[in-house]
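Hi everyone, sorry if this is the wrong subforum. Our group has a chain we'd like a structural model of before ordering constructs, and none of us has done structure prediction before. Sequence below.
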Amino acid sequence: MQVIWHLVKKCKDNDIKKIDFRVLIYIMITLKTSDLFIENIDKKLLDIVYIQNIADDYSKNHKLYAFYTIPFKIELCFENQTSLKYVMVEKNIPKEVNYFSQCLFIDDLSIFDKTLSEVETLWETSLNNNSVKIGKISLFFEKEKVDSLYYFP
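Answer:
Right subforum, don't worry. Here is the predicted structure as tokens:
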């Protein structure tokens, strides 16, 4: 609904008739930290055709797709244009574009607020090559804080 409101708000009365609302058939996907930890991500994220239609940006070779949400940026990388290789989440830095994304990340476990020490204690693990591996997740650190999260299905 936020996308519709944004489109209508920016348009003049005559322009509303020109909006192609067919793009709104795609429903927003919500991805949570807890979903990644229990390996329960929305199946739509595994569908490259679906992702191609809703991504905010993509690489030239169509292997990497990005969603620029606030306050996180989500990247999905596909291997051989068929299978999901990884999902990466990092803080969306201010210089990057803000889109009205169709994919939203919610840090329901407050991973990005945790320090290295807290992560090591909570998951009884230790830093190795600037990252901590927890199941299918790798957390990367910068200045003792979580900088990015990678999920490898």
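For your construct planning: The first helix runs from residue 2 to 10. Confidence is low (pLDDT under 50) at residues 1-12.
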